[in-house]
Amino acid sequence: MSFASSCAITLPHPLSETILKLGDVRANEPVARLSPVLTGYEQRTLDVVWITDDDLEVGMDQRRELCDLEVALEGEEEGGEGREGQRKVDRIEFYIKNTINVPMFTHIVELGGHGFYDKKTQTAVYTSKSSSSPLIGTRWIRRIKTASDESTLVEEEVTGTCPYMLRWIVQRETIKSQKHHMEGYPSLF
């Protein structure tokens, strides 16, 4: 792992309301647009795929890529033959463009990615990879939990890989961007 960041926020909204804004992958664009470095977003496709609990783990190392998840065929049921321990989720494919301003230069990073939300564990998972140099990959895990009857705790962990020479910049910008991003969540309600 080259870089990592984690952050949490408690929102003054019940779980059911928070899931609609931060869990449903079809509502990802307003959430993504809160990022201070995002300068472009396009949602490309929506399909249904099979996942296991292993797909919810943090880390870039031995996890399946979300683009490699098996597409669920129409009529296939959870718990069916060969599907023990698997469940169906909606998956989106997206494209984002980030503009990173650091002293002396501005760098544009274009990333293609996928995301899903697992209702059983109330966890959203997003992965992305840059399509050009420098090669950067990220895995973003968002867990949504009840804090009280009228509030919800949102915890996020970001892990990723990048070239060694960029590690300190990417680490610093990831922490700063994630904090700013999550502080914008109340504006979604």
What structural keywords apply?
single chain, Alpha-D-Glucose-1,6-Bisphosphate, Chain A, domain 4, 7-stranded antiparallel sheet, alpha+beta, 44% strand, 16% helix, globular, 189 residues, 3 helices
Q: Can you tell me the residue ranges where pLDDT is under 50 for at least 5 consecutive residues? A: none
Encode the helix/strand succession as letters. Answer: EHHEEEEEEH
Largest sheet: 7 strands, antiparallel
> Helical content, roughly?
10-25%
Number of helices: 3
| CATH class designation | Alpha Beta
Q: Would you give an account of this structure?
A:
The chain has helices at residues 15-22, 28-32, 167-183, and strands spanning 3-11, 38-51, 87-102, 105-118, 123-130, 137-148, 151-161. The chain is α+β, with helices and mostly antiparallel strands. The protein has a single domain (3-188), classed as START domain (Alpha-D-Glucose-1,6-Bisphosphate, Chain A, domain 4), CATH 3.30.530.20. The protein has a seven-stranded antiparallel sheet, with helices on one face. A hairpin with a 6-residue loop joins β5 (123-130) and β6. It is globular, with a radius of gyration of 17 Å. The mean pLDDT is 85.
Question: Topology, pairings included?
Answer:
Blueprint: E1 3-11, H1 15-22, H2 28-32, E2 38-51, E3 87-102, E4 105-118, E5 123-130, E6 137-148, E7 151-161, H3 167-183
Antiparallel strand pairs: 1-7, 2-3, 3-4, 4-5, 5-6, 6-7
Compact overview of the structure:
The protein has 189 residues and is an alpha+beta fold.
